[in-house]
Amino acid sequence: MKDFLLVYRTDENTMNAMPKRSPEEMQESMKRWMDWIGGIAAQNKLTDRGNRLTPSGKVVKAGNVVADGPYTEIKEFIVGYSIVKATSIEDAIELAKGCPVLTIGGNVEVREISVM
Amino acid sequence: MKQSVIIPHLFRTEYRKMVSVLSKLFGIEHIEIAEDIVSDSFLLASELWGLKGLPENPTAWLYTVAKNKTKDYLKRNLIFAQRISKEIKYNVPISEEIEIDLSVKNINDSQLAMIFVVCHPCNTPEAQISLALNLLCGFGVDEIANAFLTNKEVVYKRLQRAKANLRHEKIKIEQPAPADINDRLPAVLMTLYLLFNEGYYSSNQDVTLRKDLCFEAIRLTNLLIENGQTNQPSASALLSLMYFHSSRFDARLDQNGEIILYQDQDTELWDQGLITKGEYFFNQAWQGDMISKYHLEAAIAYWHTIQPDSKEKWDNILQLYNHLLVIEYSPIAALNRTYALAKANGKMEAIAAAEKIKLEGNYLYHSLLGELYTNIDHAKAISNLQHALALAKSAADKNFISSKISEYMQKSQHS
User: Fold this and answer.
1) For residue B280, which phi and psi values (nearest 5 degrees)?
2) Which domains, from first to last, does chain A contain?
3) Concatenated DSSP letters for chain A?
4) Which of A107, B230, B315, B379 lies 20 to 30 Å from B147 when distance is taken between CA atoms?
């Protein structure tokens, strides 16, 4: 088994276009995430559930120039990450397929972690 | 009580207390001497009480005999200890006046110290449970062998090896320092949890024995709760989990020790007194900010005490299993989660998840698949149940699955 990083991204425009969600909708969204991650954990393929990231941040560039982040150049930004165990990249992709971020116009980047 | 009844009773309640106090006095190197002295005291009791009748206070009588035997032993060994072998040192200064403290406080302190010794991770979990039954619960080799469905020689060797490991590691019989409690407590909780499970999920059909194991685990966990330093939220969570589960003991097994599924249980048989105790310690468990796996399991067990079934109940159980699995994977949690998924989100979603968890070789997995495919895919339901039957080991499990298969066959003939 190898570790793979799943990076969840959404599109800034989709996020902005979404109406403000009610507490029930928030809870429903949380449930979908937990059902999905719980399903991976039930296969004993979850290494680290990871974290969500807040939407805003800063980018430090050469010469200690600090810019507003995440990235002003692209519309997509990272909303969270997890680490899963899989035998191959195909296997890891199968795990990523059920991710709830896909239902709100987002995507999942799957990257094998290279152990140093 | 008659003598034939009182000696086994006292053995069960007093043996462990006396062994703990004397072991603490002698140190881990001489734990067997402590056991011998206490056993000899009981032997003397059974000989004398038969001839002369019961003493006024049998417990005090036993304590006095054990104290005297200990003093004799220490005196006899005084010369040896001082002149011949200086390496053998007891935890007491060897003088003419030896105080052997069998007060309630010292008994409790000694038992608590022994819990930490017995649950030391230098032994395998299985050996720790055997040691706990032997030294903390007063179970003999026969009884332990019966509980584990194995033979006496295996248990005897396992206990000898476990005691040798403790000696080798030079484990001190003392309550850990307050700073070490957080490091040492998880191993203790784990052993008590396994001891409880041994009784609750055992394939042994002796219902009385199984209850005994569960209530011994509860008693030992209560010892942790009664002490200020070990009274941690995770211990309360474990205790509430044990009470919640125990509340269904009479409802989940029939007279033959065969399993009655949760959905088929007579809820009138659920013990409300135990549920109330569970609720009390469940509330205690949430005093800190740490959430252990016992908190999640206790919360799952709490929802199981709630009637009638509702969507909300199974949604909550599913979410708790999700969190539990994220903290720590176990096959049984993965199976139970899949069952909760069927209840909360429907069978089709549960079947898709079940096919992914891949626990072939586990009869519970095939039994669950059989249940999920019922009324959905006849051939798969039957083949999974038959697979489960072939894998099941105990007679109770086999009977249970066979009856499910024939029930299902009948149903499908009628439709």
Assistant:
1) -60, -50
2) 2-112 (3.30.70.1060)
3) -EEEEEEEEEEHHHHHHSPPPPHHHHHHHHHHHHHHHHHHHHTT-EEEEEEE--S-EEEEEGGGEEEEES-SSSSEEEEEEEEEEESSHHHHHHHHTT-GGGGGT-EEEEEEPPP-
4) B230
| Distance (Å) of CA B189 to CA B180, B183, B218 | 15, 11, 11
Q: Which of B67-71, B195-199, B252-256 has the lowest mean pLDDT?
A: B252-256
Domain boundaries, chain B: 1-101
- Rounded distance, CA A61 to CA A68, Å? 11
Along chain A (116 residues), what's the average pLDDT of each consecutive run of 10 residues? 94 69 84 94 95 86 82 75 96 94 92 89
Do the chains contact at B329 and A39, CB–CB below 8 Å?
Answer: no
Contact B79/A at CB under 8 A? no
Closest residue by Cα to residue B313 from B340, B295, B274, B351 = B340
B238 close to B193: Cβ distance less than 8 angstroms: yes
- Residue B60 neighbours by CB under 8 Å, 6+ apart: none
Note if the bond before A70 is cis, omega within 30 degrees.
yes
Optimal mutation site among B291, B319, B325, interface A, most CBs of chain A within 10 A:
B325
Q: Using CB atoms, which residue from A31, A38, A43 is nearest to B326?
A: A38
Residue A74 pLDDT: 65
Give A107's strand partners: A9
B296 shares contact with chain A (CB less than 8 Å): no
| Residues of chain A contacting residue B319, judged by C-beta atoms under 8 Å apart | 31, 34, 38
Name chain B contacts of A31, Cβ cutoff 8 Å: 315, 319
Return the SS3 of B129. Answer: helix
Handedness of CA B29, B35, B38, B44 (dihedral sign): negative
Structure tokens at B321: 């299993």
Which pair of tokens denotes residue B172? 């001190």
Two tokens, residue A115: 């152990």
